[in-house]
Amino acid sequence: MANPTLETGYHPMLIGRITTLHADYYSKSNGFGLLFETKVATDLSEFCTRLDAPENQTWTVSQDGEICGGLSVDGQDLGASIAHLRWFILSPHLAGTGQGNALLRSAKTFCRDQGKSEIHLWTFEGLTAARHLYEKFGFDLVEQNAGTAWGTEVLEQNFVLKL
């Protein structure tokens, strides 16, 4: 197996693979179904049509020609000075390889270079490894509420990183 590589920008299969990784992982771990999968596919597809804007970017981790993870920064949807971190996912076989760190480091650097003052991300309680990474990079939990935005009731959490 080749070492994973980090790539920037859109390339074929990005939308399908990132959606598949999310649907597979979260259906097994949290029982998320149709609503979640269609939301990821729809929102990610719309976002990719805006990658020509300088404040938007996406990164993927590939191994042996297959996308195994990714992360995106939407610099437009939360206001001029706030970046929205979205679609962070890694294939389970890449856990502990440093690829999550590489993705978050790239996103944080990008946001700083774009002059953003904050990075926001929405997640939910129970994603221990992801939360550890967020906190390692300086994100703070600022809000949590029960909600169904994911298709199933969870404790939704908003993390913010002040740059």
How would you describe this protein?
- This protein has four helices and seven strands.
- It is of the alpha+beta class and 163 residues long.
- It has a seven-stranded mixed sheet, with helices on both faces.
- A hairpin with a 6-residue loop joins strand 6 and strand 7.
**C-alpha geometry:** globular
Termini separation: 37 Å
Question: How helix-rich are the residues, as a percent range?
Answer: 25-40%
Looking across the biggest beta sheet, what order are the strands in? 1-2-3-4-5-7-6
Question: What Rg is obtained from the alpha carbons, in whole angstroms?
Answer: 15 Å
Provide a brief overview of the structure.
It contains 4 helices and 7 strands.
Task: For the structure shown, list the relevant keywords.
single chain; globular; 163 residues; seven-stranded mixed β-sheet
Q: How would you summarize the topology of this molecule?
A:
Elements: E1 5-8, H1 14-30, H2 34-48, E2 57-63, E3 66-74, E4 82-90, H3 99-113, E5 118-124, H4 128-136, E6 140-147, E7 154-162
Parallel strand pairs: 4-5
Antiparallel strand pairs: 1-2, 2-3, 3-4, 5-7, 6-7
